[in-house]
Design goal:
By secondary structure, this protein is mainly alpha-helical. Helices cover 61% and strands 5% of the residues. The longest helix is centred in the C-terminal third of the chain and has 29 residues, at 663-691.
């Protein structure tokens, strides 16, 4: 599909077949190009030993290159020119005939020739670049180690041998995979072998090194670029590689911190790292001197020369973009995509940025109710640098492996923490694999590894809240504009998306996810295929923005952990607590609109709107769950009735009796005013009826209170349909509150507890007496406004009949 902003691609079997054909032609053209400049003697890297498990091309007499059959040539040498002619002819002939056996024979040992051709071309291009280039930069990224493809090109243009060596390695290791795809295309087994090839790709990326591991992890969340089978396989990609020698780590510490490692830390020399990944490894140590002497810390040390290795790979990948676009018909900016990856990868190499990210989270979370239950390890700044990160040592166990009773509660804390990052603080931790989520002995959640984060603008965060409210309220008319704000649909395409079934598909996915149960109750493949199908079917008007892929990955990991502890775990259900407290507490105008949507649904613009009791119940349950998670569910259950009432009273009074006119306060005063007026009219009507009738047919009470009959037909005293609906909603809401868990506790209270609770509430109200006065004045104004509006509105036909009947009774 072409035309989407930034480009999108869903490599169906057709795309994979195209890729395989282009790979074959590329291999043939590389081999053919060798004839122009290849030497006649054999380079050392082409000693007829191909990948392990493969026979040499010379082992097959029928396909032996001409160099091995010509007189006067040593049997151990190989002419690239002859090899190119023989291998290319054999491959092309097999392709033309569709002869699978011949193709398999022709490709045995083929990787070596492809690698040789690639190396030769790279050497030539590097030589030409260095001949016309300027001075070589000191490093690939001289501007404070910020990613810059231009300086990288200048740097590697002057290093042809380094570029050629890495190119040969990449081609040799990946050639077998490319040829396997080609064979699948020829034999028509693309679909059948896709799981096997996806697994092979995961293994290949691990072998290719840190950059490709990171790329694989990035691709594992790009359903717009990869088929679902490959996405699932890449999600299993592990960032685990052998450790480098501790002596090198000690050297790096000394170079970065300006002192021998042994004078700074105890426990590193002679020790093995506790963890090793593609970019660095971690040691457990203690601080050897200073005011923090004896404090246990985790010391992360960057791999030697990793920046140059990553820069070289990004340089080669960027150079390969034109071939990628040719092979896949990718309509977007492939170079721009690689540059985005490069920025993220290189930022991960700067441990100072990671320190800033973790510190930002700790500062931001202190302003939320989660401040006492979740944290990032504190950084020891004086023992940290761009290549060294020293943090406090956190004792704990991986969340998904813990058998503690509070794991389900910690899963809720994790979800609320990520929603707080996504929708409130604006900086999302993008690597929430199970190893980065720890349960501490104190029952808190610790989030590790802040190297990869995604920043979300404030406008985008508010758009998410609005979108969630619209989906929850089934207000689907607003969904197309939401999709534009969130980057799923290009601006101006709202009308076109309405003509498709995209909104229905998204609603279906949301409904399934909200049901809970994960893979056991949801056809995950069907859900993924539905989302991918939107991109494939409506590629020009629907796309999955890259930032959303990071969000999806984070929530996928959290759902997996949740399902290990609760088979009915619902990812959408776990989102509700945070969304509820945000809707109830955020005073911003856009959040106010989302709150109105959530509570009133599609009727939110009507003057006679009334709250939806079911949605209010959902909102209150969500808010209560958030409060429990923020305070620790176990602690809440252990609280006495008085303690719980005091906590609830604080929250209610803070939300409702506020000096500022908050969105929630406005809604509460509006609905209470409607119920108060309706109740008053209902009491008046009942009292008139019970008073009996006078001789003229009027009620005795009406005759006494209004002897002249001035208000006989007034809309101020006659009940309407709206009044009946308001009172009915109030009765249902009271019933909901009685059935709540705290309602049961209140019903079982002793006389002593009742007196204690009354004292608590009285004290809390007195403490907020000023706010109570302000709120009471607003309530009075709201009553006057509704009264004026009622007099101005034309009554409905049913209300008009009641007015007529009332004139004879009042």
């Amino acid at each position: 599909p072409k035309g989407a902003s930034g480009g999108s691609l869903n490599p169906s079997p057709k795309h994979l077949r195209t890729m395989a054909r282009v790979s074959a032609l590329l291999a043939a053209s590389l081999l053919g190009s060798c004839a122009a400049f290849a030497p006649t003697s054999t380079p050392a890297l082409l000693k007829l030993n191909a990948l392990p498990g493969r026979n040499s091309i010379l082992a097959n007499p029928a396909l032996a290159p001409a160099s091995s059959r010509r007189p006067g040539r040593a049997s151990g040498s190989l002419s690239l020119r002859a090899a190119a002619a023989d291998s290319t002819d054999a491959v092309l002939a097999a392709l033309q005939k569709g002869d699978v056996a011949a193709l398999q024979a022709a490709t045995v040992g083929h990787e070596a020739q492809v690698a040789a051709a690639g190396v030769s071309l790279v050497l030539l291009l590097s030589f030409l670049s260095s001949a016309v280039g300027g001075d070589k930069p000191a490093t690939p990224y001289p501007n404070n180690n910020q990613y810059d493809y231009r300086t990288a090109e200048e740097y590697f243009a002057a290093c042809p041998a380094l570029v050629a060596s890495r190119t040969a390695e990449l081609l040799l290791k990946s050639g077998s995979f490319g040829l396997s795809l080609l064979l699948d295309q020829i034999t028509g087994k693309i679909e059948e072998n896709m799981p096997k090839r996806a697994s092979a790709l995961t293994t290949l990326l691990t072998q290719l090194g840190p950059t490709f591991i990171k790329i694989g992890q990035s691709l594992s969340i790009r359903t717009d670029l990869m088929p679902p089978t490959y996405v699932r396989a890449l999600q299993q990609l592990q960032d685990q590689v052998p450790a480098f020698p501790t002596d090198q780590a000690l050297k790096t510490i000394e170079e970065e911190l300006g002192a021998p490692a042994n004078s700074l830390f105890s426990g590193i020399a002679g020790a093995e790292p506790i963890a090793a990944a593609s970019l660095g490894q971690v040691y457990k140590a203690t601080i050897a001197s200073g005011e923090n002497k004896g404090v246990s810390v985790a010391v992360k040390v960057q791999r030697p020369e990793i920046t140059e290795k990553v820069a070289l790979d990004m340089y080669l990948i960027r150079k390969a973009c034109p071939l990628f676009k040719l092979a896949t018909e990718y309509p977007g900016d492939a170079e721009g995509l690689v540059d985005d990856w490069g920025v993220g990868f290189v930022n991960e190499l700067n441990y100072q940025e990671e320190a800033v990210n973790g510190g930002f989270f700790n500062e931001a979370i202190r302003d939320t109710p989660l401040r006492d239950v979740v944290f990032a390890p504190d950084v020891v700044d004086e023992l940290s640098s761009r290549k060294i990160l020293t943090t406090e040592w956190v004792e704990g166990e991986r969340l998904e492996k813990s058998n503690a009773k509070d794991v389900s509660g910690l899963c809720s804390i994790a979800m609320n923490s990520y929603l707080t990052m996504m929708l409130e603080t604006g900086k999302l931790h993008c690597d929430p694999h199970p190893g980065n989520l720890l349960r501490t002995p104190a029952g808190k959640l610790c989030i590790l590894d802040w190297g990869l984060v995604q920043t979300l603008p404030a406008d985008l965060r508010l758009s998410f809240i609005e979108h969630i409210a619209h989906l929850t309220a089934a207000d689907y008319e607003k969904v197309p504009s939401d999709l534009v704000k969130l980057g799923f649909v290009p601006e101006g395409k709202e009308g076109e998306i309405v003509k498709t079934d995209a909104v229905e598909v998204l609603s279906s996915v949301y409904t399934q996810l909200a049901g809970g149960g994960g893979a056991k109750k949801i056809d995950v493949n069907a859900v993924v295929n539905e989302m991918s199908g939107l991109t494939e079917q409506y590629g020009q008007i629907f796309q999955v923005p890259p930032y959303f892929a990071y969000i999806g990955r984070a929530f996928s990991v959290l759902e997996g952990i949740g399902l290990t502890n609760d088979p009915d775990y619902s990812i959408i259900g776990e989102c509700l607590p945070y969304v509820s407290q945000r809707l109830l507490s955020d005073p911003s105008p856009r959040t106010a609109g989302a709150l109105n949507t959530f509570i009133f649904g599609v009727d939110k613009e009507r003057e006679d709107r009334l709250l939806d009791v079911g949605r209010v119940e959902t909102l209150l349950e969500g808010y209560s769950s958030y409060a429990a998670a923020a305070g620790g569910a176990g602690l809440v259950e252990a609280m006495s009735v008085e303690e719980r009432v005091e906590e609830v009273a604080d929250k209610i009074l803070e939300l409702v009796f506020s000096k500022d006119n908050t969105p929630l306060q406005s809604i509460v005063l509006e609905q209470v005013a409607k119920v108060t007026a309706a109740g008053t009219r209902k009491v008046w009507a009942d009292a008139r009826q019970r008073s009996g009738l006078a001789s003229d047919g009027r009620s005795l009470l009406g005759r006494v209170v209004d002897p002249l009959g001035l208000f006989q037909r007034s809309k101020l005293v006659v009940t309407s349909e709206e009044d009946e609906r308001a009172l009915e909603a109030t009765q249902r809401l009271v019933s909901v509150l009685r059935q709540a868990s705290y309602g049961d506790q209140l019903a079982r209270m002793t006389q002593q507890e009742i007196r204690s609770v009354a004292s608590i509430i009285a004290r809390k109200v007195w403490e907020r007496r000023r706010e109570l006065v302000i709120t009471s004045n607003r309530f009075g104004l709201e009553l006057l406004k509704q009264t004026a509006d009622r007099l101005d509105r034309q009554p409905s036909p049913a209300t008009a009949q009641r007015l007529e009947a009332s004139s004879s009774e009042a």
